[in-house]
Every structure is written in structure tokens, then in C-alpha cells.
Amino acid sequence: MPVTLHLVDKQGWDADAQIRHDLQRIYKDAPAERLHQPVEDFIAEQLAAGHFFGCARFNDRLVGAAAINADSRAWWLAELCVRKETRRRGVGSRLLLLIGEAAEAAGCELRVFSSQLSFADQLLLIRLGYRLDAASDYFALVSPSQGDVTE
Asked: N-acetyltransferase domain spans which residues (predicted)?
């Protein structure tokens, strides 16, 4: 599925009813073990904290998303989820690659805390050619083109 990256922050959330609808539907489709709170609370907490969502857009609809907490050195990725009807079509893989490119363009690494990775998430990253570098309490997601991670 040819998707594009659409970043959604608090301002974008407040301004667009379709974005609000789509993002809530994405996370309502999440497996029960993925979110440990109601969807509305999860999204509200992310946005209130100044975080944003990297979303996969297809035909003017959001079909996948990941919560992102950006700091000066890294984009911290959490809760990657794809709508049920678009799973197994490469949306999650493409979204992850697009977020990685955007983070790199912003001069940041893409990272995820080790406790955030399910077995399925780890398999997806390995399949995409990412190496998991456990130098700390997080994994730096380094594409083969970026080389080794150094701190």
C-alpha cells in the first residue's frame, strides 16, 4: 500500500475532526495488550505532553500510527499500530521507514525503549534490516545505511 507520512501534533488534532476520528479508530483496533488505558486517554496524554503521532496516510485517511516523543537527539517511538483492515499490506513497515527518514532529516536517531518491543515488533525490525543495539535501556534503531550507533 503506498502510504505517506503525516505528523499529527496537538494543533493538527484540534483542527481536524477526520484526524481525530481516524487516530482513535487506529488505536481502538490495537491488540488488547498494546494499550493499558482507554484510547482517548492515551491520545490525550501523548498530545498534552507535547508528543506527536507519525501516521500513515492512504487516500486522505490515516491507517496507521506511532506515538513519538522527540528530544534534541532522538525520536522515541512507542505504540505502533495499524488498522485491522490494512494489516499485512506493508503499512507498518512503510510507516516505520518513513518515520526513520523524518527523524534522520531532523538530525535525530529513532529509538524505542526495550520494554516497548513485543516479539512481533522485534521481528518486524529485524525483517526490515534494523539492528537492535542494546547499549543502554533502549534500542537505537539503526538502518544498515546509517552504520554503527555511537554515544
From this structure: 10-151
Pairwise CA distance, residues 80 & 26, whole Å: 10
Residues 135, 109 contacting (CB under 8 angstroms):
no
The sign of the CA dihedral 106, 8, 43, 116 is negative
* C-alpha–C-alpha distance, residues 112 and 106, integer Å: 17
Task: Cell numbers for 62, please give them.
Answer: 490515516
Mean pLDDT value of segment 35-51: 92
Helix axis angle for 17-28 and 39-48, nearest 10°, is 120
CATH number of the CATH domain containing 57: 3.40.630.30
- Number of domains composing the chain: 1
Residue-number span of the structural domain to which 71 is assigned: 4-112
